[in-house]
Design goal:
single chain; Rossmann fold; globular; Fungal_SecMetab_SDRs; NAD(P)-bd_dom_sf; SDR_fam
Length: about 240
């Protein structure tokens, strides 16, 4: 029985992750703590009402360290002596900016870096003691592999997330942790737009598969999802292979 903590679950990939995990039997997925910045998610509220024994909505602002620590304490109080098995850092932001990197707004770069890197570190650090008590000790950080539009701040921040994941993977390997980056692909979400390649259900299903099948030998890797028939989609976002660092 696996327990999950997932950030950014009010919509998009995060909400779909919760939905698909709840479709699995309780013997496989025992508890999901879905973190959102507020309770204004009709989709998540419906799932909470349908699965009150397995799904808990935790309200926290991932950019605020005190809020994240409070969320971790709440999860700990609900789990008792048990730990968290899997943490999925899904919360993130993507903003279109100038095609020229020198024209990227400093304020925008700080904001995007704060959400996509600093907040991920805060969440990972806050839940680390609970993960140390868990059975699987797995952390998955989501980022899209090289989006095509001018989103330079996003690209810079995700390079930082790549290094953050690599550092955690190296430092915590001896404790039995597995830290992995996953590119869910270009999905039809509010962030991805209706012009995206794949429906959110397709990409999320692959993210779930990877979280279930990953091995300790893949610690520190950056993995693409695998979508049959899309392996040659440039720049090979759906071949299921490891992305070179």
């Amino acid at each position: 029985m696996t327990s999950y903590v997932i950030t950014g679950t009010s919509r998009g990939i995060g909400l779909e992750l919760v939905k698909q995990l709840l479709e699995k039997p309780p013997s496989s997925v025992a508890k999901i703590f879905a973190i959102t910045r507020n309770t204004n998610s009709p989709g998540l509220s419906v799932l909470v009402c349908a699965h009150p024994d397995r799904l808990v909505n935790i309200v926290a602002e991932v950019q605020r360290e005190d809020s994240v620590k409070k969320a971790a304490a709440e999860v700990e109080s609900r789990l008792g002596v048990s730990g968290v098995d899997v943490l999925i850092n899904n919360a993130g932001t993507l903003s279109h900016d100038s095609p020229q990197v020198e024209d990227v707004s400093s304020d925008l770069l700080r904001e995007v870096f704060d959400v996509n890197v600093v907040a991920v570190n805060q969440v990972s650090a806050a839940f680390l003691p609970l993960l140390q008590k868990g059975k699987k000790k797995q952390v998955f950080n989501l980022l899209r592999n090289w989006p095509p539009s001018p989103v330079n701040a996003y690209r810079i921040s995700k390079a930082g997330l790549n290094m953050l994941t690599a550092l955690y993977a190296h430092e915590k390997a001896a404790e039995g942790f597995t830290f992995v980056l996953i590119s869910p692909g270009w999905l039809m979400t509010d962030l991805g737009s209706s012009w995206a390649d794949l429906e959110v259900e397709v990409g999320t299903k692959e993210v779930v598969r990877i979280t279930e099948q990953v091995t300790p030998e893949q610690n520190g890797q950056f993995l693409n999802i695998h979508v049959p028939g899309w392996e040659d989609k440039m720049p090979a976002l759906y071949d299921g292979k490891q992305v070179p660092w």
